[in-house]
Recover the amino acids of this structure.
């Protein structure tokens, strides 16, 4: 019995210490919010996330050697060009002409030892921040759609680069300090000597067109496609419990939650999402508009195939991304072939796009087609009354997509005229009997 009191004292001391320790742990406990956020809701990705450089890829490059043009629209060549730009030090970027005339542009492109890189849309300078190393901290709030690269002084490890804007008629000039100038010439310039010859199509008072002289071989493809409208619904609506579906017609479904709505059109294989409360007339600067649009789409893996920035309208904060396959644009009057974003008040206002992606090439259906040369097409166009060469933005080879409401699409190579961002398929009826795969 004489040990009872000492034992009680020890037990009491231990209990007091345990209480102190537990109290301290409660006071200093910090939950792992990152873990909670990850486990509360699984992130939905419809496709792989991409980098900005994936959607600002050029579609054509031409080279001037000894008063002759060569050129390519090869997808692998465009990838090589973009990779060669990586890490360039862009020095003394400055405007040198804000009233650029067509004749001046044509003379620059004709200069020997220069290459011109064509982008399908106007690119904000900030979009190249992850590619170039700009010496200037403040980049101009403007855009460009062509780069002219003068390599005549590459032995001095220096290139001269001009940035041209078709919309703003603005010319910017810079110099590039390039330690690996010989590598650039070896990988990008030397191979161009073996490319097809290109013809300059001169137009009085307008920038020239540049068209391949040789006939063009391209494959006709047939693809299985994967359709994912339900995934887009899960991504775009914040509270799925509030979403109500109504069938508008045999080919149209509508989803709404009281704040936003989404319409699925199975005929055009498209979806249109609108958040009316975000509508805004406030103009957004090109750099922010592109960043906001890109990040919105990329956050849910919305660049499900090869999409490239092709047009922008800062007057209504709209950007368009064209669908490409094997380096060629896809056009269709049966299915939508662009992603369109209209930015509103700090969030997306309108989002329209295809809800399908290419899944598998049906190789047994692949068929090679021979198209007329660009020179032949130009001569045909000159004889037409309904198409004027001076109204044309470009003449390109692309794919015409058709489908029969199934999960199979056909992509036929054809020549297209681009006017004001709108494509016109050059059919035999339009061209007066041109054959060779244009049907």
């Amino acid at each position: 019995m004489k040990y009872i009191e000492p034992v009680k004292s020890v037990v009491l001391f231990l209990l007091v210490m345990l209480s102190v320790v537990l109290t301290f742990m409660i006071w200093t406990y910090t939950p792992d919010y990152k873990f909670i956020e990850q486990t509360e809701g699984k992130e939905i990705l419809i496709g792989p996330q991409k980098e900005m450089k994936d959607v600002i890829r050029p579609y054509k490059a031409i080279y001037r050697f000894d008063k002759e043009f060569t050129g390519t629209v090869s997808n692998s060549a465009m990838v090589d060009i973009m990779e060669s730009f990586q890490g360039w030090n862009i020095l003394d970027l400055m405007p040198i002409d804000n009233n650029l005339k067509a004749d001046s542009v044509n003379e620059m492109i004709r200069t020997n030892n220069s290459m011109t890189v064509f982008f399908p849309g106007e690119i904000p300078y900030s979009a190249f921040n992850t590619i170039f190393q700009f010496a200037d901290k403040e980049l101009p709030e403007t855009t460009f759609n062509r780069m002219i690269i003068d390599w005549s002084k590459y032995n001095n490890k220096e290139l001269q680069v001009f940035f041209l804007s078709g919309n703003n008629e603005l010319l910017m000039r810079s110099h590039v300090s390039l330690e690996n100038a010989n590598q650039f010439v070896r990988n990008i310039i030397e191979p161009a000597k073996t490319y097809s010859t290109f013809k300059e199509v001169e137009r009085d008072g307008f920038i020239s067109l540049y068209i391949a002289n040789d006939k063009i071989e391209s494959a006709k493809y047939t693809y299985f496609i994967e359709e994912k409208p339900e995934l887009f619904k899960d991504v775009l609506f914040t509270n799925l419990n509030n979403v109500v579906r109504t069938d508008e017609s045999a080919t149209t479904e509508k989803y709404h939650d009281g704040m936003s709505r989404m319409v699925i059109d199975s005929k055009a294989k498209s979806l249109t999402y609108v958040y009316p409360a975000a509508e805004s007339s406030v103009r957004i600067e090109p750099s922010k508009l592109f960043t906001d649009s890109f990040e919105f789409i990329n956050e849910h893996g919305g660049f499900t195939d090869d999409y490239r920035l092709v047009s922008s309208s800062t007057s209504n904060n709209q950007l368009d991304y064209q669908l490409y396959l094997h380096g060629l644009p896809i056009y269709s009057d049966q299915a939508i072939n662009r992603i369109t974003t209209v930015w509103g008040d700090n969030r997306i206002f309108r989002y329209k796009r295809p809800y399908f992606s290419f899944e598998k090439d049906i190789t047994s259906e692949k068929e090679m087609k021979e198209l007329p040369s660009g020179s032949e097409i130009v001569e045909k166009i000159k004889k037409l009354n309904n198409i004027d060469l001076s109204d044309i933005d470009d003449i390109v080879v692309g794919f015409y997509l058709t489908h029969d409401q199934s999960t199979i699409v056909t992509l036929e190579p054809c020549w297209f005229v681009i006017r004001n961002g709108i494509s016109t398929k050059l059919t035999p009826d339009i061209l007066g009997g041109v054959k060779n795969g244009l049907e």
Q: What stands out?
A: Residues 4-28 form the longest helix (25 residues). The first strand starts at residue 60 and ends at 65. Residues 268 and 335 are 4 Å apart (CA to CA).
